[in-house]
Each structure stands twice: as structure tokens, then as C-alpha cells.
Amino acid sequence: MPEPRSVPVASTGAGRSSVLPMLAIALVCLVAVTRLVLWAWTQQVSFDGAMNLEAARSLVEGHGYRRMYADHEAFSHAVQTRAPYILPAAAVFAVFGVGLWQAQLVNLIYLFALAAIAFAIVRRRVSVPWAALAATVILCTPQIQDVGLNGYGEVPALAWWLAALPVLYRANGEREAGLLRCLLAGVLIGMAMLTKTVLLIGLVAVLPVFAIERWRQRRDFAFLIAGLAALLAGSALPAAVHEAGRFLYVADFASWKHWLHDELLAVHSRRASAPASTIPARWRARWLRTSACCSMPWASQAPRW
């Protein structure tokens, strides 16, 4: 009789080597989420964040989009975070009232959304473990509770900004983005710029990268121009809707034009006073090169995990 063949037994070493890092990442992520939730539940917002949130409270109390002290100015330039943050905050105040965790809730949601978007982007390019690590790194960023919560609009703006990437590039095998997706990505970028007007500067960096990628996909000027036009039209749409609403509220063209002029001057002054100038030039250059490469869908992939 022929001897029975031995059945190979699968080794569990590879499985354990992949499960243990994921368990470690999940544990660190859970600790980070718990820390952020506790901070949002117990800590007051910053002074600058309170100036943003007072506009949300003013809306709920029926006084309009204005500050609640000093000159009670409508659409004050001191309120440097706009409608994509203010309106959800007003909705939270209207439903749950005004309090510590209510003031932090919108920031917390935007911060978790930013981590989820980072997860989606890295997952499409690499794998689930690397995506989980990317989201965890965001939630564990030093002092993230100070800049990500407390009424600030930087993290909400960044969440809108990065959300454009998975819209433009759905999967590794799908290279070209249609005009509708370019338009939608532009709307998301426009929401980021509306949240923080200073991100108008970022559009200068986005357009050349988008144009290079568009030309790489298809060497066709009509294809390139159509994509750029759709992206720019989408990015202008949120600001157009916002400005139309503000014009109807002000009901005076001269006042509306004067406000817009002052806002652009404020953007320039905030750029001129940015602390980035204290960073050595070589590190700024390295950061810019790294950021540009990471934003491109053809960047080198990390090893499979």
C-alpha cells in the first residue's frame, strides 16, 4: 500500500508577525482617541478659538454672523475661520447648547475625519497596516490637542484639502480623473480655502502639481486645460456662494468690496508674519519636496506590510 502523504502544516509565524504590529497600533490609537475625547470633554477653547465660536453662538441667538463683544462687527476679520467650521458649530450649539464639550465637538469630528482621510489615502497606495499607522501618527502628533481642537480652523481646513486626493485618484488602476471628479475635488479645495482664507497661497502649489500629473496621464492640451478649468471652477464655487450670501447680508456693494480688499490684505499680512521663516532654509526645502512627492499618486510606495 502506498504510504499516506503528509499534509503540510501552515506556519503561524507570519500571521503573528503581521497581527502583533496591528494590535500595537490599535492600542496606541485607542489611547490617543481616549486622550483627545477627554481633552474635548474637560478643556476650554483658546481665546482665538473663542472668537471663532462666538460667531457661531451669535448665529444661534439670532444676532447674525458677527462678534459678540467690542464693536459687534459682522464678518469680522478677527474671526479667521469661516463658514465650513462656523455653521456646524452653530448647529451643535443649537441642538446641545453652549458648553465645554459642545465648543470642542466640531474640532474633534474634523480631527477624526482627517485621520480617516489619511487612512483612505494610504490604504489605496499601500496597505491597511500602513494606513492605520498613518492615522495613528496624526492622532498622536505632539500638541495635536492644542492646534487640532480649541476652536481653531487649521485641522478642519486640512481635512477638506486632503479629501480632494481620494476624489481625484480612486484606486491604483484608475489613472485618469474625469471632469466631474476634477470639479468635485476643486469644490473640496475651495471648502478648505473658505475655512482658512490663507490657504489661497496653497493653490499656487497645487496647480502646477495637478497640471504635471494631468499632462503625464495624457499628453493633450485640451485634456489639460479642461481639467484645470474644472478644478479652478470647483475651487471658486464655495467662495462664490459665501460671498453671495455675505453680499445679500450687507446689501451694499461698496462695503462688500471694501471688506474683500481688507481680507486679502489680512491674508498677505498673516503670510508675512508666519513663523515658518524661523525654520532653516534647507529644512523648508526638504519639507516642500517631501510634501510634493507625497501628494503625487506616482510617489514611491512603501513596502507591503
Verbal overview:
With 305 residues, this protein is mainly α. Helix content is 71%, strand content 0%. Helix 8 packs parallel to helix 10 (221-250). It is flat and about 60 Å long.
Radius of gyration: 23 Å
Q: Helical amount among residues, as a percent range?
A: over 70%
Instruction: Measure the end-to-end span.
Output: 46 Å
Tally of discrete structural domains: 2
User: How would you classify the helix and strand content by structural class?
Assistant: mainly alpha
Number of helices: 12
The coarse overall form would be flat
Low-confidence stretches: 272-281, 283-303
The averaged pLDDT comes out at 79
Beta strand count: 0
Task: Write a brief caption for the model.
71% of the residues lie in helices and 0% in strands. It is an all-alpha fold. Mean pLDDT is 79; it is low at 272-281 and 283-303.
List the helices and strands and how they pair.
Blueprint: H1 13-42, H2 47-60, H3 83-96, H4 100-125, H5 128-139, H6 144-148, H7 154-168, H8 179-195, H9 200-217, H10 221-250, H11 253-272, H12 281-295
Helix pairs in contact: 1-4, 1-5, 2-3, 3-4, 4-5, 4-7, 7-8, 8-10, 9-10
State the main characteristics.
mainly alpha, 12 helices, 0% strand, single chain, 305 residues, 2 domains, flat, disordered C terminus
